[in-house]
Design a protein that fits this description.
Order of helices and strands: HHHHHHHHHHHHHHHH
Radius of gyration: 24 Å
Number of domains: 1
Number of helices: 16
CATH architecture: Up-down Bundle
CATH class: Mainly Alpha
Helix content: 55-70%
Structural class: mainly alpha
Oligomer: single chain
Distance between the termini: 42 Å
CATH topology: Cytochrome C Oxidase, Chain A
CATH superfamily: Cytochrome c oxidase-like, subunit I domain
Strand content: under 5%
Number of strands: 0
Length: 563
């Protein structure tokens, strides 16, 4: 890759950029074909984002169909088999085709810019990861025209083995896990190598942006856990088609083996989806509080602590299985321990806002909404870590409510904050503040209406994964409220999508640094040129843009003084 000589003084990259030839980035646009063959990290990031938001719309429709079926007792909007298929499609879509690839999109676009790199370390491998992800989604949704999967997003054995579900839907689910898993592994390797070896001059590990720290922690977890779930579904595939007996108790296999392997991936997966949101919140809050992040080192260290502890808590998803009391106690204590680094982050974020000069823009709305809702989800998570409580509410809507408080309130709120924060950098246009705030409040109120009341449903005994219930159960009012909330939430998300489409054509043009940000992505033009930077500055602090603005202001004062 071509190198750029470091000048003595830093100049803005908004001026006409000299052409920089490099074999790592795509050349000038050739239209549609250029998008198909691109290796530019920015275009690959946009492809990830657009594709994932399309899958989000599919997953959202599936969620609304389920909520419509459950709005009243004894409804027949969906039959039992169709309900199971839609539930499986929804859960799998949101985990493997929405949240994970959305973060892959943001990391692809933003990480090289934040560390002052021209591209990802392995551009062609980066492109391959996107096409594997897309192939996984196509294979999975192609099953709709044949036999959709219906064993749930966890595909527990022996339910998912051939004698119980003989169609090819579960096979499509297995292929999805393999294809998207390989895509995630390639992305994790790329992110790790890029951050480790392609940082700007002066950017040591103690000056890496916190979003990059969260992506490093996520990459470590992906590299350690994806091979485990890949092995588990491979054993399931051989049980289904080649006569082996790893997972079926009927022939001497172990259904618990699959649960251990799946949840060794499945619980770190929760943090794989939420850690990038932590990084976004750590970027957004100091910018809109107009003060440095409180406890940079503590937040960075807590990300690595979460990555480590997440490997020790998988069996708290299995408290209803016949585990010994010693094992139950170990996983209960380790599940409580993981709340410590998470609490460190929350306290540091609150301290960052405290006495700050608050600039109440839409990214900050979603960031503060994240703090409130994710904290509530964390409280119920600690409750579920206590195995006597977990045994009372396991497989009820209390668990559904907790899970969505963590992932919808956590990951999706973080995604919305990232979208509103980095959209000007990606497109050169500003999103509508008014429409953004309306979208936030509809999502916030809709989310609480949908999932807060589900805790009550769970405590009153409503099992999850049922497609209907009788009027004598007394669950109709709560389910109707939850369904209305789901539609409000869906409208709020659609408003953001409408905001994006409208702003791409008619939005106010964005300057290179509309938020007065702290990290290097705001040093280049909006959107950035193909080569990202005309000049890569020397990094002298954890907030390089603040340092650059000080130096520019000092130079201007010196020039005026000499005049």
């Amino acid at each position: 890759m071509s190198t750029v000589e470091q000048p003595a003084t830093v100049r803005s990259t908004t001026a006409a950029a000299p052409e920089i030839k490099t074999d790592r980035v795509s050349g000038p646009s050739r239209g549609f074909l250029d998008w198909l063959s691109t290796t530019d990290h920015k275009r690959i990031g946009i492809l990830y984002l657009v594709t994932s938001f399309a899958f989000m719309m599919l997953g959202g429709v599936e969620a609304l169909l389920m909520r419509t079926q459950l709005a009243q007792a004894n409804l027949k909007v969906l039959d039992p088999q169709t309900y199971n298929q839609i539930m499986t499609m929804h859960g799998t879509t949101m985990v493997f085709l929405v949240v994970m690839p959305l973060w892959a999109g943001f990391s692809n676009y933003i990480v090289p810019l934040q560390i002052g790199a021209r591209d990802m370390a392995f551009p062609r491998l980066n492109a391959l990861s996107y096409w594997l992800f897309l192939a996984g989604g196509i294979v999975f949704y192609a099953s709709v025209f044949f036999t959709p999967p219906e064993a749930g997003w966890t595909a527990y054995t022996p339910l998912s083995t051939g004698p119980y579900i003989p169609g090819n839907g579960t096979d499509a689910w297995i292929y999805l896990i393999h294809l998207t898993g390989i895509a995630s592994l390639l992305g994790a390797v790329n992110v790790t190598v890029t951050i480790a070896h392609m940082r700007a001059p002066g950017m040591g590990w103690s000056r890496i942006p916190l979003f990059c720290w969260s992506m490093v922690a996520q990459a470590i977890m992906i590299l350690l856990t994806i091979p485990v779930v890949a092995g588990a579904v491979t054993l399931m595939l051989t049980d289904r088609h080649f006569g082996t007996c790893f997972m079926s108790p009927a022939c001497g296999g172990s259904a618990l083996l699959y649960q251990h392997l799946f949840w060794f991936f499945g619980h770190p997966e929760v943090y794989i989806m939420i850690l990038p949101a932590f990084g976004v919140i750590s970027e957004v809050l100091p910018v809109f509080a107009r003060k440095p992040i409180f406890g940079y080192r503590a937040i960075a260290a807590s990300s690595l602590g979460i990555a480590f502890l997440s490997m020790l808590v998988w069996a708290h998803h299995m408290f209803a299985t016949p585990l010994t009391p010693v094992v139950l106690a170990f996983f209960m204590l380790s599940s409580m321990a993981i709340a410590v680094p998470t609490g460190v982050k929350i306290l540091n974020w609150i301290a960052t806002l405290f006495h700050g000069s608050i600039n109440a823009k839409v990214p900050l709305y979603f960031a503060v909404g994240f703090l409130i809702l994710f904290t509530l989800g964390g409280i119920t998570g600690v409750m579920l870590a206590i195995f006597p409580i977990d045994r009372q509410v396991t497989d009820t809507y209390f668990v559904v409510a907790h899970f969505h408080f963590v992932l919808v309130a956590g990951a999706v709120s973080g995604i919305m904050a990232a979208l509103y924060y980095w959209f000007p950098k990606m497109t050169g246009r500003m999103l509508s503040e008014r429409l953004g705030k309306i979208s936030f409040w509809m999502q916030f109120v809709g989310f609480l209406g949908t999932f807060l009341i589900q805790h009550t449903l769970g405590l009153s005994g409503m099992p999850r994964r049922i497609y209907t219930y009788g009027a004598e159960k007394g669950w109709e009012v709560e389910n109707l409220v939850s369904t209305v909330g789901a539609f409000i939430l869906g409208i709020g998300v659609l408003l953001t999508m409408a905001n994006v489409i409208w702003s791409l054509r008619c939005g106010q043009r964005a300057s290179p640094d509309p938020w007065k940000g702290n990290t290097l992505e705001w040093f280049t033009a909006s959107p950035p040129p193909v080569h990202n930077f005309d000049v890569v500055p020397v990094v002298r602090s954890v907030e390089p843009m603040r340092e650059i603005r000080r130096r520019v202001a000092r130079d201007q004062r010196t020039t005026e003084h000499h005049r």
